[in-house]
Write the structure tokens for this entry.
Amino acid sequence: MKIKISKDFAKMPGGRYQNKSDKSGEEFRKDLLIPKYNLAKSSKEKLIIDLDGLFAYPSSFFEEAFGGLVREFRSEKEQLISTIDFVCEENPIQIDRIKRYMNDADK
Amino acid sequence: MDFRKRLNENNLNKNILAKSMVKRQEKILERERFDATLLKREIFVPGIWDFGNNNEATTKFFSDIVEAIFDSDLSGTNLVINLDNLNNFSIESIVYFIAIISLLNHHGVMYSGLLPNDANLKKNLGYYGFHNHVAMDGKLKYDKSILAVECYDRTKPELVSKIRVFTKNNCSKTEGSYLASMCEMIIEMMDNTCNHAYDNIEKTRTVLKRWYICAKNEEKCISYVFLDTGLGIPKTVMRKWNEFYGFSNSKIINSALKGDYPRSSTGHNFRGKGLLQIYSHFKSENCIRDFKVISGRGMCIFNNIDKEDADLIELGSDIRGTIFCWKIDKTKVMKG
């Protein structure tokens, strides 16, 4: 199972909250990430997040999307982290950044 | 005796009459003086309209206009904003002026104005969207080297895409990490403004929660200005962290950009890192230069070689909100 953000959501992601930003991290999490994560979990598949093709990697967008996912599924953090994998050939450093948001999300 | 008594009484009456006439005249004069200040207050633009090169006069000009909005003693004043003397302006001055005029409109302050004498200057103002935002005549003049002022009240990634295309096209269509860094910087500015800049700013009036952006292509660089008219960094920081009491405004801005405060304003570790992100992008890209932040009474102008170092300047008057300025040096843009 895969989400390519640049194709399935936006090439230029926005800010943190839906009520204050177009193409926000909250919108992405609610409309795409959570439904796909639930599907992946129930079918015991990996969910691949493809970050290639994006024009920018705004921290508030990614923190709210992926950090927010951890906060929402706090009790299954380990399972969540092991279910989601990232691909980013254009800018691999972004993967570590997003993983850090996920690890620090509930601190 | 009677005569003398009557004479004394007459003199007394005359004195009372004279005194009351003087009092009456004084009252009329006082009223006239009051009416004159109440009905018309003329504010003149400085010849050099630039926060960097003429900070005293430029900040005074803006704070005088803002005073007319928020000082209740000046309510009902008709402002006359006179741009007649204008010789030279910086981009941030014109964008900030457009933002302040939007505030005047929002708060229903009566104002009129005079455009600069110089026809070339008048035309140049038009390219920034001046007539569209200020004169409201809807005639947007167009110059391909200028991305005219746009304003919104939410984060707008589509506009960031437009700025990306403008930047790339003016940097010989060079793709590179500088484009992503610049876009991330702008998105953080927009989001930071929408989430923090107008927190608890006015309890009694509606607030115009907007940000403004503009860009200009020049021979060797592209200049950008992003600003808001919110509470400003020093006041926001001081409200939340009293450790900063006693610091100058420029020092607070410098510390806030470097993330020197103890925790997020929201109480969560994952929040409140917007200013630090903005500054990090300036630091990480060699071609992003001349980074300047003006807010409250402080101005930080960052060094292009040692990007940790900044000139900390205190302004003559308070500036409402925050102004970010930076440039992309086209000669230092790297591919890849």
In short: The longest strand of chain B covers residues 310-329.
